[in-house]
Design a protein that fits this description.
Strands 2, 4, 5, 6, 9, 10 and 11 form a 7-stranded mixed beta sheet that branches. A 4-stranded antiparallel beta sheet has the order 1-3-8-7, with no helix packed on it. The protein is an all-beta fold. A hairpin with a 6-residue loop joins strand 5 and strand 6.
Length: about 120
């Protein structure tokens, strides 16, 4: 089992940057593909970015592909989401998630076993 805690959210103007971090505790961080999802009010939770267990492969949603990057540090048991050129439509609660069943991160929330509590990102226009 793994526990996930996100940090780094906040209020930023359009065009600005934020870095979200997810700290994992528990055993076997390297056994999990990791991902970031987000959920805006009235919308379904959507995949943002995922990273393979060894960090050697990443997947990004088309809407963020040129603006966000995902990295992980298996020694520190963290996974970060660096967000550049933020837009108002990026406003959402961002969640960190862990999937113990797959080598490569999937894009469906149903695939993920563990979730953090979320961190709010608000982008003003």
């Amino acid at each position: 089992q793994v526990q996930l805690v996100e940090s780094g959210g906040g209020l930023v103007q359009a065009g600005g940057s934020l870095r979200l971090s997810c700290a994992a505790s528990g055993r076997g961080f390297t056994n999990y593909a990791m991902a970031w999802f987000r959920q805006a009010p009235g919308k379904e939770r959507e995949f943002v970015a995922g990273i393979r267990k060894d960090g050697g492969y990443t997947k990004l949603a088309d809407s963020v592909k040129d603006r966000f990057t995902i990295t992980r540090d298996n020694a520190k048991c963290t996974v970060d989401l660096q967000m550049y050129n933020l837009k108002p439509e990026d406003t959402a609660v961002y969640y960190c998630a862990a999937d113990g069943g797959r080598w490569i991160p999937g894009t469906s929330a149903d695939l993920y076993d563990y979730w953090g509590q979320g961190t709010q990102v608000t982008v003003s226009s």
